[in-house]
Design goal:
The chain is built from 13 helices and no strands. With 410 residues, the chain is mainly alpha-helical.
């Protein structure tokens, strides 16, 4: 039974947002023009936000509270722009990865147990995708609601925008309304760019880990699967130990090819995303520190603290999502060695096929000792230990920032 992509909620949702950004495959030339226009609009929206935040930090320099607010915004704008530029440089490889997931992972033939593995993977993907989208969308809504609530009861000269633009003429209608709409549109596209690439990286990582689990199952249960799926052919040919060894070795070579393909897939994933992962890890500590400071310190207004409560939850969810998915690849690729050792090799005779299978089995175990992984530009391997390391760094930065804020206030 083939697993179609239509019932994969996480990929369906993520593909919609990827199309809104403009980084998705096109079926024909007309659709490609739409993608190019959408991508151009996304870049313009992000560059407009960069200009707004640059003016804001220039004119508010010296105001500690305002600079913290603007610094968080600048980091949140710079990260999506960085991701888009990196993926544009690897666009062809990125699209090949998407096609490979669709053709080899989602539309492959599975038995009942393997379908359970795939469905479990889909549930995890849906959970992480919805969690990050909810927290990011909550942040965007709070950014929009904040000035709307603050402007209640104020006259035209006292109104504020979601982000200060430091242009006097914008306080008057209809320029104020026009600037407000432009900022909201830019904010929405930044939010979509903020989470859609990480969602897809998480999906690709978790599906790769599930394929390693399926490979473990096939290697460990090789003899049982031969009997259940190829009963007639098996009973006809496996009438002697030599035939059994030859059939087992032929099937084992298919599993080895699948293992090699998964390793190549993870290497390509590493090639495309390692620079993005490095940027993510470097900025997460600062974002979590700045968000936590503005949430926990009572000197900031409640509306701002609500904004950064959602922003902090988005950062923590995003960090957990991609470190957990990377850790899954490491663990499942390592467990291939145990699975292949649990195969039917002790039952094989010392024929040519039996000896070759034992030799190749040893090579598979040795290769599995070096797990597949994603790195931060090869500086370090990303795993759940990265999550705790980033949180530890964020707490250290928070302590320093708190001391700085107390010295300024005193």
């Amino acid at each position: 039974m083939a697993v179609s992509k239509s019932n994969d909620v996480s990929i369906g949702i993520t593909s919609v947002f990827m199309k809104l950004v403009g980084l998705w495959m096109a079926a024909d030339r007309a659709e490609q023009r739409v993608r190019d226009c959408t991508l151009s609009y996304t870049l313009i929206a992000i560059l407009f936000a960069v200009w707004v935040q640059a003016r804001d930090i220039y004119y508010s320099w010296g105001d500690f509270s305002a600079c913290l607010f603007t610094t968080c915004n600048i980091l949140s704008v710079a990260v999506p722009l960085f991701k888009i530029l990196v993926l544009l440089a690897h666009r062809k490889d990125f699209f090949r990865l998407i096609l490979y997931v669709q053709e080899k992972f989602l539309q492959a033939e599975y038995d009942d147990y393997e379908r359970k593995i795939v469905m479990d993977c889909k549930r995890k993907c849906t959970f992480f995708v919805c969690l990050l989208i909810f927290s990011t969308k909550g942040t965007l809504i709070c950014y929009v609601i904040n000035p709307l609530v603050a402007n209640i009861g104020k006259n035209e000269s006292d109104r504020i925008l979601p982000f200060n633009m430091w242009i006097d003429s914008l306080i008057l209608s209809p320029y104020f309304e026009l600037a407000f709409v432009l900022q909201v549109l830019s904010l929405y596209h930044i939010g979509v760019s903020y989470f859609c690439f990480d969602n897809f990286l998480c999906i690709m990582n978790l599906h790769a880990a599930s394929q390693f689990r399926i490979l473990q199952y096939r290697m460990a249960k090789m003899a049982d699967l031969m009997r259940s799926e190829k009963r007639e052919k098996y009973e006809k040919l496996a009438t002697s130990p030599s035939n059994f060894a030859r059939i087992s070795y032929a099937i084992f070579k298919e599993h080895v090819r699948q293992h090699q393909t998964l390793i190549a897939y993870c290497d390509k994933l590493e090639e495309v995303f390692n620079l993005i992962v490095l940027g993510q890890v470097l900025t997460f500590s600062l974002l979590i520190c700045l968000d936590g400071y503005q949430v926990l310190m009572p000197i900031f207004p409640t509306r701002r603290r609500l904004i950064f409560t959602f922003h902090l939850s988005a950062a923590l969810s995003q960090l957990l999502m991609f470190t957990y998915s990377c850790d899954c690849i490491i663990r499942e690729s390592t467990r291939v060695a145990l699975a292949v050792y649990s195969g039917p090799w002790p039952l094989l005779p010392t024929t040519t096929s039996g000896r070759m299978m034992r030799k190749d089995l040893t090579l598979v175990i040795m290769r599995s000792g070096s797990p597949c992984c994603l790195t931060a530009r090869r500086f370090f391997v990303v795993s759940l230990e990265t999550y705790t390391g980033v949180l530890s760094s964020a707490v250290s930065y928070f302590t320093l920032l708190k001391q700085r804020g107390e010295s300024i206030s005193s």
